[in-house]
């Protein structure tokens, strides 16, 4: 009897050490991702404003990208602040209300990031793909006329979607060894139903929209390349110029989103069904997603990408030992290429 009690105590201590080590490691790893997310998104915003001052033009896509960058930065700052507070205040002495508010704000901002990304992909699919369906075209035109209104409504919808968590979810009453401050757990039937609805609205629906846009863009690219190759009789490879870059960016956004979606669904499943408290892991993968999204957006804007690579290489030139990290710069190609305003 006594040895069994000692063994249980040792097992509990080992679990505590492993759990704290994992949370600490995730907190440390999220730090560099937070820095890169904020840096890349602030860079996009500043470059967009600089372009506006130079050209006095501001497109609908830039409005969506600006909204996405603001949501990414806000999400990352609030998320890492919560993770830091949770790591420092392990006894939750500050109070559950503040932590709960931060968690709800993180979920709301995540909703905004997901829908802003899908809205951007939807916008590019409209600009790239033409459809003979007049009714569908009218709907698309109506959406494009109200882009600014849409990017303001998305965060409001996210906040409204997350508010029911205060009613149907409950605070995590687990032991201190596996507790995060302010975390709400769907431990009731109504909570689990809401968790499914939240995942559908935040992950599945924007994911389906992005997949649909990805298929439309891919079909458009295949048809366009076939027509161009036929018109040149296969004499040389067809060139799409900036249009191809936008297509690559849109498809890359979809691929990054799908990878994140698979991981996020697994985490949400473990939380809702098995009641495992792994919310820190969810925040870590969301931070990785926002970093990857920002890098894809920079690549999609050729001017942004060239300036970033040039400045990066200039920094590497200051330290000869790091010259091997320099990135080859793209050479400007002359000729008539198809363009799309992005």
UniProtKB/TrEMBL annotation:
InterPro entries: TAS2R. One of its GO terms (molecular function) is G protein-coupled receptor activity. It is a multi-pass membrane protein. It is found in: Membrane. Gene3D superfamilies: Rhodopsin 7-helix transmembrane proteins. The chain crosses the membrane at residues 35-52, 64-83, 98-126, 147-169, 204-225, 246-266, 278-300. Keywords: G-protein coupled receptor, Membrane, Receptor, Sensory transduction, Taste, Transducer, Transmembrane, Transmembrane helix. It comes from the Eukaryota. CDD domains: 7tm_classA_rhodopsin-like. Its main location: membrane. GO terms for cellular component: membrane. Belongs to the G-protein coupled receptor T2R family. This is Taste receptor type 2. It comes from Larimichthys crocea (Large yellow croaker).
